[in-house]
Amino acid sequence: MEDTGGRAKVAAVAVGGSFSVEQPLWIAISAFRVLTVLYAVGRYAQHEEHYTNQPGAWIYMAVLTAWTLGTIRVFWSKQHCGRRWLIADLALVVVGILLTRAFDAPHWVHDGDVTLPTIRAAGSVLGFAAFGGWLPAAFAGVVVGVANIAEAGKLDSSNLHNIVLLLLAGVAIGFVIDLARKSEETLARALEIQAATRERERLARDIHDGVLQVLTLVKRRGTELGGEAAEIAGLAGEQEVALRRLIASGLGPATPAATRAEPVAVDPNAPHDVRTLLAPLADPQVSLAQPGTAVLLPNRAATELAAAVGAALDNVRRHVGEQAQAWILVEDEPDAVVVSVRDEGPGFDPARLAEAEREGRLGVSQSIRGRLRDLGGSAEIFSAAGQGTEVELRVPKQQVPKQREGK
């Protein structure tokens, strides 16, 4: 029997907790074993007069009941229930089926009287199904079926009907658990790929905000200076192109929001005033308009929003000019913080954004839109030829602890 439970357990942990699709099934099987053994005891007590060896039958029922109740915790989860427990449980059921022929009156056996374990046998088959899937369940069902035929001394329509139902139930449960395990494994692999893609996007943003910005500056300033500096500028330009291609080739499709770890050990949910992060961005070329009261966001959201604003200003300097005028407007709405960055440059065709992303220029797609997407917000870019560009960044407000009065 193939042990697929280990992979399913790993998959369940990867999904984000101790939940496993198998656990509710094991609990149901454990409860089923208890209920069916109580039914078997009650059924035997009702038909005790059918048996020629009543003390022997009572001893077996007592052993079966004690075993079932004593192994409740064992059959409560796969972590505790192994092959040996399942084989022992199946063996005890088979012994009870065969003892029925010895303890029951011959004419009752011939008339198709039910066996001592009766439907308690199904609990053993279901245990094999939950443990190893449909194939072990089919094996256990066949063993129980052969024992029933041996007890009856013949294969008639009655025991054939019971055997078919038992096999169908066991195999069906086995198929369900096999499918559930494969689904968990597939989900775990998808989450691993998604996590890797998120990390690549985060690294791409950091590289864009650091290395690529420096290479672009060296290329531009070196070209302006000429001479040996122009040669350095050419090398910087080549490295910039190569690095952009490398980043673009390593990025997967866009993914949902992800949590980005900050380099400073600060509570990411602590409230932070966005204004304190945007104030350093103001200079003679950048005008900042913001409310007179604190604009609070969780620390991580405020930091990422400020970084996105910085990336938008970098785009203004790069595409419009170092002395280009830009305006930052901060709006504290009831359900969101909105920051707009506007310039009066020549503007551009919005279709160029997709083209730039394909070429590895990720300033907008990652440093701006990627950051806002990770925060559950949005970044809208409005531009037209000759009408400048406006970047609107919207971050939904999360639960931020209210400041105490007088603070």
TrEMBL record:
Give the source's domain of life in one word: Bacteria
What parts of the sequence cross the membrane? 57-76, 85-103, 123-147, 159-177
State any GO CC term. Answer: membrane
Question: Locate the Signal transduction histidine kinase subgroup 3 dimerisation and phosphoacceptor domain: which residues?
Answer: 199-219
> Entry's Pfam families?
DUF5931, HATPase_c, HisKA_3
Sequence ranges assigned to domain DUF5931 in this UniProt record: 18-188
**Histidine kinase/HSP90-like ATPase domain mapped to chain residues:** 304-398
Q: MF terms per GO, please?
A: phosphorelay sensor kinase activity; protein dimerization activity
What keyword terms does UniProt attach to this protein?
Kinase, Membrane, Transferase, Transmembrane, Transmembrane helix, Two-component regulatory system
The name this protein carries in UniProt is Sensor histidine kinase
Species, as recorded:
Streptacidiphilus pinicola
Cite the source lineage. Bacteria, Bacillati, Actinomycetota, Actinomycetes, Kitasatosporales
